[in-house]
């Protein structure tokens, strides 16, 4: 941002209170923060699966797969997968929902969901609800 840009923003504003100058963290820092968040998310999926006796397969979900879902839409509600970084902390609506709860979070057994509440509700309903839900989507 230079003086000319600031001058243009200030002189063209109809309300000075609407002029905001953002001097935030660099995109590189945001990228590192997001990658660390997604890596931790995958590690948590691994721990969850191991704690429930589900083995980890070669095609287990990866941080890059999760990252590739941002900008796509939830198959359940149609909301866009997004993330925001505030004060160095990532907030995201993306979660990986297992189709078959007896298997681990491998790529052929997950669908991206945006609503953690939906994911938790579905787990409580049992497998028959999941089968009906996914036949409806297809």
Which secondary structure elements does this structure contain, and how are they paired or packed?
Layout: H1 3-12, H2 27-51, H3 63-69, E1 83-86, E2 89-92, E3 95-98, E4 110-113, H4 116-125, H5 127-137
Antiparallel strand pairs: 1-2, 3-4
Helix pairs in contact: 2-3
Kindly summarize this structure in a few lines.
46% of the residues lie in helices and 12% in strands. The protein is of the alpha+beta class and 138 residues long. The protein has a single domain (25-137), classed as Herpes Virus-1 (2-Layer Sandwich).
Verbal overview:
The protein is α+β, with helices and mostly antiparallel strands. It has a single domain, classed as Herpes Virus-1 (2-Layer Sandwich), CATH 3.30.40. Helices cover 46% and strands 12% of the residues. It has 5 helices and 4 strands. The strands form 2 sheets. A two-stranded antiparallel sheet has the order 1-2. A hairpin with a 2-residue loop joins β1 (83-86) and β2 (89-92). The longest helix is centred in the first third of the chain and has 25 residues, at 27-51. The radius of gyration is 20 Å and the shape is elongated. The model is unreliable at 125-138 (pLDDT under 50).
Query: Structural class given helices, strands, pairing?
Result: alpha+beta
Q: What is the CA-based Rg, rounded? A: 20 Å
How many separate structural domains? 1
Envelope shape: elongated
Q: Which regions have little confidence, pLDDT < 50, spanning 5+ residues?
A: 125-138
């Amino acid at each position: 941002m230079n003086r000319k840009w600031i001058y243009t923003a200030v002189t063209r504003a109809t309300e000075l209170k609407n002029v905001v100058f953002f001097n935030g963290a660099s995109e590189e820092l945001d990228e590192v923060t997001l990658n660390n968040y997604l890596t931790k998310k995958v590690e948590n999926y691994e721990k969850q699966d191991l704690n429930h006796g589900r083995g980890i397969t070669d095609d287990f979900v990866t941080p890059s797969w999760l990252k590739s879902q941002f900008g796509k839409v939830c198959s359940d509600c149609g909301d866009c997968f997004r993330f925001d970084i505030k004060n160095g902390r990532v907030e995201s609506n993306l979660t990986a929902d297992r189709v078959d709860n007896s298997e681990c979070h491998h790529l052929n057994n997950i669908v991206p969901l945006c609503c953690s509440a939906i994911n938790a509700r579905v787990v409580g309903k049992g497998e028959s609800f999941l089968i009906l839900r996914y036949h409806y989507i297809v």
